[in-house]
Amino acid sequence: DSRSLGGQTGGPAEMSWSWSERHVDEYHVQGYTVFESILPASLVGELRHSCDAARHLAREKAGPQTQRLQPVFDYDIDHTPFTAFAELPELVDALQRTLSPGHTHGHADGLGVLLEPADLPWCTHWHRDWRDNISGLDLDRWEADYRDIDLFNQVNCALYEDSSTWVVPGSHLRPDLPRERSRFPERPIDGPGLDGLEGSSRERACLQYCTSMPGARQLHLAAGDFCLYRNTLWHIGNYVPYRRRATLHDFIDTPAYRSWRQREVSAANRRREAGQGMANPNRDH
Length: 285
What we know:
The chain is 33% helix and 14% strand. It has 285 residues and is an alpha+beta fold.
């Protein structure tokens, strides 16, 4: 298997990582690209061990259905492999070649781990980050800035095979299409109707919700794959308890993005205090 963590069959050597211009092309056209098998197998194993402790802490803190511990550096687990992840030379180089030397990952206030729910299937609602999940956000600002490559870059790095994420490729480049506005006319966007459902019925309802978005595509990551994506894509996470998950989740930071977040979060807070809720791009813009 050319994508196995152990490299070529019959030998202990790691697979070599190779960056190419296709990663830039994919990122700008699709809104995502995958650095395949960029994490060494040894680091994947060390991260899995630390994420086992993270899974325990997350469920102890927020219950069995929780799917996230973030930021991991705030919790009493072994941080050594997360620091190694942040400093991995091949990964730093790939990010800088795809974006710029000013784009950085693995920050203490951002890096987290996404986990499988313990008991029941579950999925998020379809969304484009900030616009569809921050109450009080100024839609004019988001509309003006969502194509800016210094902003809105995000990461899923799989430590086990992970097919939880769905996207609409290319949606980061444009406003919503009429069929997307028709599918989700209201804000906040409703998730799937799961009341009273359990087991396979709940799993089926989540899957049908995912596929109800026109143009949806499921992403498939192998252990050690690093997916860089624009969070202004239409995207969603869909999770089942029988599939083990430990996926590092992070944003790519820049000075411009830090400034944007500080400014727009403060403005959103003021708007909420003034009684304004989540604006609807289908009506309020």
